[in-house]
Amino acid sequence: MQRFYFFINITAYEFLPYYQGRVKDIVVTSEQGQRIQFPAMHLRSYLTPTGIMGRFCLETENKKFVSLKKLT
């Protein structure tokens, strides 16, 4: 299993196209400098009225999504 750590700070307004499904994937840069793309729907549960902010851990296996957890 591979783990990628990243920070995200996106306002609720900026996340709206992802939430509505008009944009399917979100792209982030890991703390190790790797570009990571995954389905934005996995961030929906972390959306607050102000947006999505914090440090996350994305777990993959064979380049397939396994889980996403908010760390801070």
Note down, in words, how this protein is organized:
The protein is mainly beta and 72 residues long. The protein is built from one helix and five strands; from the N terminus they run βαββββ. The strands form two sheets. It has a three-stranded antiparallel sheet with strand order 1-4-5. The chain has a two-stranded antiparallel sheet with strand order 2-3. The longest helix has 8 residues. It is globular, with a radius of gyration of 12 Å. The two termini are 22 Å apart.
Secondary structural class: mainly beta
Whole-number mean pLDDT: 95
Q: What is the general shape? A: globular
What's the gyration radius in Å?
A: 12 Å
Biggest beta-sheet profile: 3 strands, antiparallel
Question: How far apart, in Å, are the first and last alpha carbons?
Answer: 22 Å
What percentage of residues falls in helices of 4 or more residues? 10-25%
What multimeric state do the chains show? single chain
Strand content: over 45%
Order of helices and strands: EHEEEE
**Uncertain regions spanning at least 5 consecutive residues:** none
